[in-house]
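We treat protein structure as text, and this decision shapes the records that our systems exchange. The tokens are whole numbers drawn from a learned vocabulary of local backbone shapes. Below, we set out a record of this kind in full and without editing:
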Amino acid sequence: MNKPDDSFAVMAATSAAGIVPWGGLVAPFVEPVLRAVQVEWARIFSKSLKMATKRARMDLEDLKEVLDGNPRLMPLIVRLQYAAGMNGYDKTLMMLAGFLGDALSDSSKIDEAATMMAAVENLGPAHVQVLELMTKDASDVDPTCARGDVRWNTGRLTYVMNMRPELVILGVQGLLNAGFISDTGFDGGGANQEGMGVGGTTFAVTGLGATVLHILSEMSEASA
């Protein structure tokens, strides 16, 4: 089977650039910048689309045929395309490509893929780093923890990740809203950098969070 070429991705990404109200409103000196944006957008989308088609075991002709036969897939393509331009984070695009690939190979998964893609499309590095870290026992990575302590709170995450507390909190809140982690209770103390080891609201990865991490792992291995 041939590898999918770039023609479809370049065409789609370039045409989609028209959704931005540039038109005749920009000065000529800005046009090279806009062309560079289009080229980079096309490159990222092409790479992501290739990951999806590789997972679905299809080439470009197969993809066109599948899209012609099932227009319900087109919004998923557009969602990946949009994320390539507006997010661009490699791990998020891997997740999106993975869910899209599943939908391309099995139309019964279209609704599930659409839901999961909507849930992950705005994830950034802080979200993914927090989610990946929370799969580990806290005591394995935080020397201030008692051995066997598996609990995570925002203070402990901040300490281990060496990230601004505000970014950690945003990452945690985004994961809570998406359903990828859950609040598992309150064990006393303050969930802040000063009270990092004494307690606060604790969190754990949900089954949904484990699902996105699993597909990220599969996609990472496939692209290695």
In short: The radius of gyration is 20 Å. The chain has eleven helices and two strands. The first strand starts at residue 181 and ends at 186.
